[in-house]
Amino acid sequence: MLGLTLLTDPRWANIAEDNLEEILTDHAWCEQKAASNAISLITNNPEHTDLVHELTAIAIEEMQHFQLVIDIIKQRGYTLGRERKDDYVNQLMKFSKKDGSRNTAFIDRLLFAAMIEARSCERFRVLSQHIRDKELAKFYYDLMVSEANHYTTFLNFARKYTIDVDVEKRWREWLAFENELIQSYGTKEQIHG
Length: 193
Ligand SMILES: [Fe+2]
Ligand SMILES: [Fe+2]
Prior knowledge:
InterPro entries: Ferritin-like (IPR012347), Ferritin-like_SF (IPR009078), tRNA-Hydrxlase_MiaE (IPR010386). The protein has helices at residues 11-17, 20-44, 49-75, 87-95, 102-130, 134-161, 167-182.
């Protein structure tokens, strides 16, 4: 699925469902961070007009996702907690190339975003298929579709704007790294936990 070589154990969905307030809080902040990431890509690359426009749409959509999640939190009588540390994303950030040319860092930032969209999409799929709550299952199904589109957008921009990066080769490195990394996860009530 989306190039991911290791899929999440469905039992993770039960851990998530048994800790709904926690997973919803973590999820809300994932959406906020996705919006922030799109905004910083816009800020750092204003000369790419189509990227500016498409990522503006994504940033808005991510904040709409944030709004949907905080609405669910409220409807169910929960409270949005503070932002959770996302160890998985921090590890991906460490893997990304920040030195080298401006283009190298830019392309890797796009691949970093594509990677997170791919895994988030896969996690939403697991939730949509395995949680008992029908309303939430439908909600996660819709988000899965949306994040799959974001994944495609980021990957296609990497292909379009590369100057000195072999995107297909670098993307395979990202997938291989993620495949190793994700083996330590899948047991916690976090979207990437
Ligand atoms: Fe989202
Ligand atoms: Fe997204």
